[in-house]
Amino acid sequence: MGLASGLPLKLIGDTLQTWMKQEHVDYTTIGLFALVGLPYNLKFLWAPIMDRLVPTFPGFRGRRKGWLLITQVALVLALVALANSQPAQQLSAVAALAIVVAFFSASQDVVSDAFRAESLEQAELGLGNALHISFYRIAMLISGAGALILVGQGISWHVVYLLMAALMAMGVVGTWLAPPALHNAPPPRNLQEAVVEPFREFMGRRGAWEVLAFAVLYKLGDMLAQALPTLFYLDVGFSLTQIGTVTKFVGTGAIILGMTAGGALMLRLSLKRALLIFGILQGVSSLAYVWLAHAGPRLSILALTVTLENLCYGLGLAALMTFLMGQCHTKYTATQFALLSSLTALTRTVLAAPAGSLVKHWGWSNYFLFCTVIAVPGLLMLMRFDHWAKPEAEEAPAK
Question: What is the 3-state composition of the chain as percent helix, strand, coil, each rounded to the nearest 5?
């Protein structure tokens, strides 16, 4: 499930950005393409429908597996269509197809998260989430580094995207093999119950609006720093093959290491302290890009920069995921987690959309300095951490 969830993101993100750059699309337009990821921000709007309705297919028992089949087949078809497009001549069509991919990818995430929560015992959730995110990152490595390496070796973008569509079809195999959910709660009795109750319960808590703001701001600087990575590396002077083999492989390993280390450290740290320490580290790590911008195309500094940035990214992600899951009521996990994860995705879509224009006017060094500064508001919000109520524990202050 992690592989299937992680594969589409790069194909409408920096892999598509690189394809557009090679087709001579300007930076401002490429930056605006971050908006095609809006469905990741809005998935909470249709998550209740996927909770309420139960699609049935031969061999696919349960609403989660039924919805997974629908989203995965739709993703395969949309990626095939995208493979047969031309960004320079069909910009509107490419944007529309990218939005379709984002919609079904975000929908798959909703179902996959719920399926994982309903298939694992409470004690298994930590390991389950770590495995899911690790394989999610491996899939991003395939659709990011793998795609760039193939193009760098002379394979056309058309063929590369067709290969990615074929890999996406493997998600159907995983869905077929997966057993039914362990905790298969009955669906809501009606759509009103599915839509209203998760939001009413969440917004009725003390500090609910602050929690939503924190979900947006905590990784804002870090996400902005990674909004246009391939374009930055190309401008510094690295080749596509170097970017694919050095930055992506090193970066994925560093993120997995960061998440593992973050999970281990959080056994000793309180959640509030972990969010603070890891948040400071991920904010400061953006300065490594400034160093690289001045150092030029030196592979050793590139590897060190990517390691530091992604290691700190993984630390922050481990703390944030733990925080967000702790904010979900057990009765409404799918919809509430969709809401919170949608808000965190704002940092790589709406809020990242002006990145191309900022780089164009400020240059890379000033842009990455800005990324460090913009991380401060999220850290300051932790001063209010003890005032945020948790589900089913309104009377108990958070630690």
Answer: 75, 0, 20
Percent of the chain with pLDDT over 90: 39
Query: Of 10, 35, 255, which Cα lies nearest the Cα of 148?
Result: 10
Place of tokens 């290691």: 311
Query: Residue 183: pLDDT band by 50, 70, 90 thresholds?
Result: low
Triad 386, 390, 393: Cα angle to 5°? 105
Gap between the Cα atoms of 9 and 13, Å rounded? 6
> pTM for this structure?
0.71
Please state, in angstroms and rounded to a whole number, the distance separating the CA atoms of residues 339 and 322: 15
What lies within 8 Å, CB to CB, of 396 at 6+ separation is 390
Where does the pLDDT of residue 124 fall: very low under 50, low under 70, confident under 90, or very high at 90 and above? low
Distance of CA 233 to the CA centre of its chain: 21
For every residue of 60-115, DSSP letters joined together read B-SHHHHHHHHHHHHHHHHHHHHHT--TTT-HHHHHHHHHHHHHHHHHHHHHHHHH
Exposure letters 356-373 (e unless 16+ CB within 10 A, then b): bebbeeeebeebbebbbe
Instruction: Decide if domain 2-387 falls under CATH 3.40.30.10.
Output: no
CB 146 within 8 A of CB 7: no
Strand partners, 60: 57
Burial class from Cβ neighbours inside 10 Å (0-12, 13-18, 19+) for residue 395 reads exposed
- pLDDT average, residue stretch 192-219: 89
CA distance 107 to 387: 32
d(CA 220, CA 245): 27
Give the domain ranges of the chain. Answer: 2-387
Spatial neighbors of 190 by CB under 8 A, at least 6 apart, are: 52
